[in-house]
């Protein structure tokens, strides 16, 4: 073959290979790297909500103890058991208090016997008084006429005064005995009341959540023996960002998901928003009450709370992955343009935004492709 023709053939083959390589690069690498999935915004409704991590707590806990310390004779309830208001739940050794009550009762009985005897003595003295008055009246009539000696008159008068004095003394004795009897009764009542405080009763209907002491243990006054919670006081305490908590109001419907039953959401309502925030975490505590408390329940269990704060109607809704750096990329005549938008609400993997007309073509950024930039040529 002519050398010039051979050289031309080689050149043509090289150009053909170069063209094929360029075409392959363009169709297999360049175009895919500049091709992006696109979507069109949808209009619809979206619930506005606030999310927070929570723990199961109680509005009020009742640590039950005794006014007096001593040795625990019995603890009649355990953790997880229900109690009724007024039910006996523990007893403390009263030591010698029952003996003191028995002694006080014996003293009261003695006073009553003495009072009964004094009243009988008073009745006898009153009978003697009547006789003395009759005798004295007789001598009072006879003595001035000389029919009775002066000495008999004086004797009758002295006897009358003696009986009157004895009656006055006996009446005073009876009053003293009555006062002692009343004091003895009050003393017994006080001892019995004190004895009753060595028996500990449930202050409310509820559930024992903690047993703080055991039988034979010596407890101090007011030391907790059992801790009780009322089921109606159980709620979840959620930490919510300060910026989001401004939207919350008591009574707003909520969804509670307990860690022990994530697939069984529970309905609730905002019960209280604490007025003080944590200056470090910039969070606020929001308590959410159960509409129907699950049984069994566990204090300190972790939970997730979603609080419904309202509903957006006719909102522009996009996939959450379309939103980047506070905006979205749109395809305008084959070129990428970044548009700032305001996120109004997030629900799952969707976001509601404003600042879009609703007829734009939205580009979905892909980490495996060339990053989008203003004016980038895009292909579909």
From TrEMBL:
The record's annotation in Gene3D superfamilies points to: 2.40.30.170, 2.40.50.100, Helix hairpin bin (1.10.287.470)
Which segments does the entry list as coiled coil?
Answer: 101-194
* Multidrug resistance protein MdtA-like alpha-helical hairpin domain: residues covered: 115-176
Where does the CusB-like beta-barrel domain lie? Answer: 234-281
Record GO cellular component, one term: efflux pump complex
Gene Ontology terms for molecular function: efflux transmembrane transporter activity
Pfam families noted in UniProt: Beta-barrel_RND_2, HH_MFP_RND
The yes or no answer to whether the keyword Membrane is present is yes
Q: Which InterPro entries match?
A: Beta-barrel_RND_2 (IPR058792), MdtA-like_HH (IPR058624), RND_pump_MFP (IPR006143)
Residue ranges spanning the membrane: these are 12-31
Alphabetic keyword roster: Coiled coil, Membrane, Transmembrane, Transmembrane helix
Top-rank taxon? Bacteria
Q: What NCBIfam families does UniProt report for this protein, alphabetically?
A: RND_mfp
Instruction: Give the similarity note.
Output: Belongs to the membrane fusion protein (MFP) (TC 8.A.1) family.
Tell me the protein's name: Efflux transporter, RND family, MFP subunit
Natural source organism: Nitratifractor salsuginis (strain DSM 16511 / JCM 12458 / E9I37-1)
